Amino acid sequence: MSVNYKLKKSTRKTMSIKVENGQVFVYAPLLTPKFMIDEFVKKHHNWIEKKLNDSRINVYFDLENDKEIYFLGKKFNLQIVTGKKSEFLIRDNNLMLYGKNIRSIKTNYKKQLAAILTQYVNEVKYELGIEFELDFKIYKSRWGCCYSKKNLIILNYLLACLPYELIKYVIYHEVAHFKQGNHQKEFYQELEKICPNYKILAKELKNYTILK
User: What are the helix (H) ranges across the chain?
Assistant: First the structure.
């Protein structure tokens, strides 16, 4: 069974595939022949079918190729402008990122996401009267991680793509691990103390994924 896809060629060095909103996008180097692209798509047929049947919202972003991006639970049209002073702007339904080059734009956007998440973490710290170290990382399969012995929580930069209430839920979830390491009955009892509606939020969180 053949796969219908939209081809986007650029100066990139490798091929990649992205499935979004029921459409398949293939990114390939400028001189890549059609038969090689078709073979590449055929090789990844099962993965494509799985992604097409996945109804979850994928918030993983590729600033070089994507035209849309999620930020705080809302989908925006993505506009990248190189050669200008670094800036982050939201106007109407457009999220605009400016910078010297794509590398600096990526770096600055991650800083923006970290700043948003730090703000929400500080809210939780103040609310619960606790203190811990905070760091950030791009994870492929988790929203955050708690290292209780180091008094450290690491959050996925992509968490800032989610709605506010789900961001706070993930922070509460990681904080609960300071007292209960494993997902046993005692852990969820601790989580319920600081986030009474955690069951509803945990269910909502399952509507999102960070698959690359």
Answer: 34-43, 45-52, 102-128, 164-176, 185-194, 198-205
Q: Where are the chain's structural domains?
A: 6-54, 68-103, 108-209
In tens, the pLDDT along 128-152 reads 999 999 999 999 889 999 999 999 9
Q: What is the CATH number of domain 108-209?
A: 3.30.2010.10
* CA gap 11, 28 in Å, rounded: 8
CB 164 within 8 A of CB 72: yes
Q: Amino acid identity, residue 17?
A: I
- pTM here? 0.78
Rounded to whole angstroms, the Cα distance separating 194 from 77 reads 36
Q: What is the DSSP letter of 169?
A: H
